[in-house]
Amino acid sequence: MLSNTFVALSLLPLTLAHFQLTFPKARGFSDDVESNFPCGGFNDVQKQRTDFPISGGPIQLNMGHPQTNIAVYVAIGDNPGSGFSVVARQQLTVDGLGNFCIGSISLPTSLNVSDGTLASIQVVSNNHESGGLYQCADVKLVNTQLSQTDYNNNCKNNTNVRVSQENISGNPNGSSTNASPSTSATGATPSSSKGAAAQAKAVSWVLGAVGLAGMAML
Ligand SMILES: *[C@@H]1O[C@H](CO)[C@@H](O)[C@H](O)[C@H]1NC(C)=O
Ligand SMILES: *[C@@H]1O[C@H](CO)[C@@H](O)[C@H](O)[C@H]1NC(C)=O
Ligand SMILES: *[C@@H]1O[C@H](CO)[C@@H](O)[C@H](O)[C@H]1NC(C)=O
Ligand SMILES: *[C@@H]1O[C@H](CO)[C@@H](O)[C@H](O)[C@H]1NC(C)=O
């Protein structure tokens, strides 16, 4: 039954609306190459960086799939290539379309960053047959917080968007947990619930892949 769904799915056009990073401003977005690691095909660092508060700033996304797994990684330095080794937000599942804001991501206190440190942020999602989808932004870390107005303008949730699961182990692109970055923003990676988390991940993968049709069938 499920395989029928997969057959049907494989007939769908590959360029369903994916997800976009809108704050901090992404390097760029192209549906066709968003599945290219790293940064969805945009390898050049932006000349114009967005100021991003060290104390924590929002990540604004525009979701194009009914259910998506997301994680946020950070690389310190002026041109990190593919070295996004810091987990700023562990994998979560978001349900719903359109505006979704992760209210605040912040960096592990063990990182030696200060006002003016250059960094890059990569948001990774699942929902692609060959792995993940990628969006990057280049930022300058600053001690100043966003004004309330800037925060409100760059952190919005559509009414039907919600987080259904948090702190899922592994990388949304489906690469093994071992290969994924290990530095956690909290320093605490849930390990006791590893089996359950892995299973939950598998289930959300299926849901992510087959969408609502699959959910109805389960
Ligand atoms: C998945 O992400 C990891 C690091 O986040 C990367 O090393 C790997 O190449 C990615 N896999 C694919 C298929 O893009
Ligand atoms: C949007 O939802 C996320 C996840 O539940 C939350 O972190 C964020 O603070 C919310 N933002 C606003 C402006 O409500
Ligand atoms: C932290 O960075 C500052 C300047 O960026 C440097 O002077 C200092 O030695 C660094 N400290 C550690 C512990 O790496
Ligand atoms: C996920 O982890 C964060 C940071 O450790 C914690 O604050 C939050 O309560 C956790 N959420 C769940 C649902 O366990």
Automatic annotation (TrEMBL):
Keyword Cell membrane set for record: yes
Presence of the UniProt keyword Lipoprotein in the record: yes
Ranges of biased composition (kind: Low complexity): 169-193
Keywords: Cell membrane, Glycoprotein, GPI-anchor, Lipoprotein, Membrane, Signal
Stretches assigned to the Copper acquisition factor BIM1-like domain: 17-159
InterPro entries for the chain: BIM1-like, BIM1-like_dom
Region annotation Disordered: where it falls in the sequence: 164-193
Membrane topology: Lipid-anchor; GPI-anchor
Gene Ontology cellular component annotations, sorted alphabetically: plasma membrane; side of membrane
Domain of life assignment: Eukaryota
Signal peptide start-end: 1-17
Protein name as annotated: Copper acquisition factor BIM1-like domain-containing protein
Gene source species: Cucurbitaria berberidis CBS 394.84
